[in-house]
Design a protein that fits this description.
The chain is α+β, with helices and mostly antiparallel strands. The chain has a single domain, classed as Alpha-Beta Plaits (2-Layer Sandwich), CATH 3.30.70. The chain is built from 2 helices and 4 strands; from the N terminus they run βαββαβ. The strands form 2 sheets. A two-stranded antiparallel ribbon has the order 1-4. Strands 2-3 form a two-stranded antiparallel sheet. The chain starts with 6 loop residues before the first strand and ends in a 6-residue tail after the last strand. The site of one iron/sulfur cluster (SF4) has 14 residues, from α1.
């Protein structure tokens, strides 16, 4: 089934810049800012795998758009 990029939303207030999302994203959607917080650099590469939302310890990432696997 086709995977469409998720609509990635970052809550800057909750993000502590741990870099987990950057490390886990298999599509390398994120790059790191100087403070470690992610920049959504290549949203078109997103495969909607859900890992960034799942792995973020501070629930700072939410994925909108189509549900995973739809
Ligand atoms: S859903 Fe997956 S591919 Fe998309 S930004 Fe998150 S970790 Fe990367
Ligand atoms: S995993 Fe969450 S807290 Fe860590 S850098 Fe990414 S968005 Fe911020």
């Amino acid at each position: 089934m086709p995977k469409v990029p998720a609509e990635i939303k970052l809550n800057e207030k909750w993000c502590k810049g741990c870099g987990i999302c950057i490390a886990f994203c298999p599509a390398k959607v994120f790059t790191a800012r100087a403070d470690g917080k992610p920049v959504i650099a290549d949203p078109a590469a997103c495969t909607n795998c859900g890992l960034c939302e799942l792995r973020c310890p501070d629930f700072a990432i939410s994925l909108g758009g189509k549900a995973h696997g739809e």
